[in-house]
Amino acid sequence: MRWEDIDSQVCSMARALAIFGDRWTLLIVRDAFRRIRRFSDFEKSLGITKHRLSDRLNRLVDEGVMKKALYDEKRGRYEYRLTQKGLELYPVLMSVVQWGDKWACDDDGFPVEFRHKTCGHVSVPRYVCDCCNEPIDPRDMQPIPGPGVERKRARGELVQNEHSRNM
């Protein structure tokens, strides 16, 4: 399968990666969480070319992850803000950060800690089952067909093996 066709898979991960699966896009989202909003500030922070930055920001806007907001009407300048859809990427970014802190850090230690404003403590988010509140371990999880697969199968759009490949 070609990368351009990745969003046609019956797989939520593949479809999500079609939106933010390159190195620049997640860094743009990271910077948006750091309250960077203007094109020139993204460019300066990332050292990215104008063309590539424009392409990635436009894709994020088209996908509803970010929205453009006019901040200088006279010069027609916009800033980019995360939408609710974009804000919901926070756990994804934090998971990548935690993995990087554990496996890709240098000897000086991790570069950023995150303080929870409500309680004032440095916090490491946990991933737990929403039913029993036990920590999630991949060895304890079993992927099963969801309603999207079952509906496609009922319409004859999927054969049994096609979904198993994507889980």
Descriptive notes:
The structure is a single chain. This protein is mostly helical and 167 residues long. The chain has a domain at 1-88: Winged helix-like DNA-binding domain superfamily/Winged helix DNA-binding domain (Arc Repressor Mutant, subunit A). Helices cover 44% and strands 8% of the residues. It contains eight helices and two strands; from the N terminus they run ααααββαααα. It has helices at residues 12-20, 23-33, 39-46, 50-62, 84-87, 90-103, 147-154, 160-166, and strands spanning 66-72, 77-82. Strands 1-2 form a two-stranded antiparallel ribbon. Strand 1 (66-72) and strand 2 (77-82) form a beta hairpin. The longest helix has 14 residues, at 90-103. The mean pLDDT is 90.
In summary, what is this structure?
With 167 residues, the chain is mainly alpha-helical. Helix content is 44%, strand content 8%.
Give the tags.
two-stranded antiparallel ribbon, about 170 residues, mainly alpha, Arc Repressor Mutant, subunit A
What top-tier CATH class of one domain fits best? Mainly Alpha
Mean pLDDT: 90
Number of strands: 2
Structural class: mainly alpha
Helix content: 40-55%
